[in-house]
Amino acid sequence: MNVSPDLEGRVADWLDARATADGSDRVLAAALEEVSHVRQERAPSSSRLRRVARPMVMAAALAVALVVVAVTAIPPVPETASARVTGVWPVESDVAFTADLPSDASNDLYWRAASYDTWSSADRGWRSSVEASTSVPAGSSIVDVADEPMRSAGMSEIAVTISPRLDSTVVVAPGIPAVVDQATVVETMGPGGPLVQVSLSRPATSYRVTGLGGSQTSVSATDLMTAGTDYPDDVRTRYAQAPAASELGAASMAFLGAARASSRDDPYDLAAEIVEAFHDPGFTYDVDTRDIDCRGDGFTECFLRTKRGYCMYFATAMIMLLRHEGIPARIVMGFLPGERVESTVTVRTHDAHAWVEVFFPGWGWIAFDPTPRDGASRLAPGPTP
Amino acid sequence: MRAELVERARDGDANAFGELAAGEVQRLLVVARLIVGDRDLADDVVQETLVRCWRYLPTLRDIDRFEGWLSRILMRAVADQSKRQRRPAEVSMQAMLIEPATMDEVSAVDDREQLDRGFRQLSIDHRSIVVLHQYLGLSMVEVGDLLGIPEGTAKSRYHYAMSALRAALEADGRVPIRGEVLA
What we know:
The complex is a heterodimer of chains A (385) and B (183). With 385 residues, chain A is α+β, with helices and mostly antiparallel strands. Chain A has helices at 7-18, 24-38, 46-59, 221-225, 233-239, 250-261, 267-278, 299-306, 311-324; strands at residues 83-84, 95-100, 111-116, 118-120, 125-127, 132-136, 157-164, 175-180, 184-188, 195-200, 207-213, 284-285, 308-309, 329-335, 339-341, 344-348, 352-360, 364-368. Chain A has a six-stranded antiparallel beta sheet, with no helix packed on it. In chain A, α6 packs across α8 (299-306) and α8 crosses α9 (311-324). In chain B, α5 (103-120) crosses α8 and α7 packs across α8. Chain B has two domains: 2-84, Rna Polymerase Sigma Factor, Chain: A; 95-182, Winged helix-like DNA-binding domain superfamily/Winged helix DNA-binding domain (Arc Repressor Mutant, subunit A), CATH 1.10.10.10. Chain B is built from eight helices and no strands.
């Protein structure tokens, strides 16, 4: 049986035939029953969020400084100064950490561990351009010593308890870690610069951390489309430098041209279109790329020509393309949401992940996940729930 | 007056919320069942949507935008559900195979079975956009707003979804099925 040309008509008829709402009384009754239990714990009002967030806005005075940091470590880059692309992504299923979430937390919290600004095609790796570290006492504000721009309103704030593996001191959080209940060492890109990562001063069986503005965000697509390109100078300098000429080639330019042609002329549209294009079946997610022959092409060009790789490839290529267009973008290393049973999440080594943050004036860094994964929906700005 | 119900519910009036929810539940159920496929899972998604609606109503600023806001909560709940349910939903083969069909109905029934199977093979993102555009008749601007993506992205996602569906139907068509002789 051939597919008829009027597939849309067939689908519309089929959907109409399938549409049903019988049993709605039962669903409604169940929902209202549950609502009667949660009546006392409605969402925190925005005033509470604002009270927490406001000092951060002040703390986020713009500071540029250049030093170098020793960056530790999440799998698969344990205790090294950078996140390098080795050609193999870990697939082990041992537990990296467990997290206790508030019961109303979303299921799509990405766990943020580290961020870098500088890509080296020669080293095939990300590192921070400059390094500095500061000891922060238990319970003190981390965002006071790091320059992470924060919005004042609509910022999600989630406190979680993490039980890490004892051999790992890297702090993971649903967003930028604002406060940890243990002494930490905070690594920044230069004194008072953007956050690289936070480590516990000594190993602990568990710690409590408050994450701000993670993958759960209340920014709408319209907000981002109209955010403009009035970037702070330090953000532009650090995160929007055009990649080396060797990084991008014919395949990259063709890809970028197609993405630009099908998006409107704003950074959000372009970023979203790149993510969309990476979900084309022409791209293959593969955790082992050691057999790929790059024939001397730069990293991004090689990836966009062969269209095979894992998260580091998708994320790095997206950042290079955005930076080529003068749009500030950076890489984030961390973990996928993991497996949730009631309020406990188990995150395994194979959940280790790299994704992208793009800067929007007035909104700060917004997460995008360009890596196609089966069955998963994508990070997209939307309402807090 | 719905605006008034929304306002009262936002201010914590549980009775007003009950009335409001009663007016919305059918619309939510239809959409969730079309996208999720499995009826029990879809019912869970709608229940979760209504609970989140109550919980987050205090954050709704513009009462006139309640309907779109609630739809976004639904789409987010659908996405969360698909993450919990990592395996693709099983094809539900029920009813139609068993019911005797008259000759006139045979091709329509086969078409539906084939679409049932093909649609189940799409990702949740693709199923969502097809239902929003084809069933609800939303424009790509509206679809983009609901899914939190730009119009251009919504257009290309829809295009990819229909291509994927066509590919699934073509692959399915290679297996001899009842309707073949009629096609």
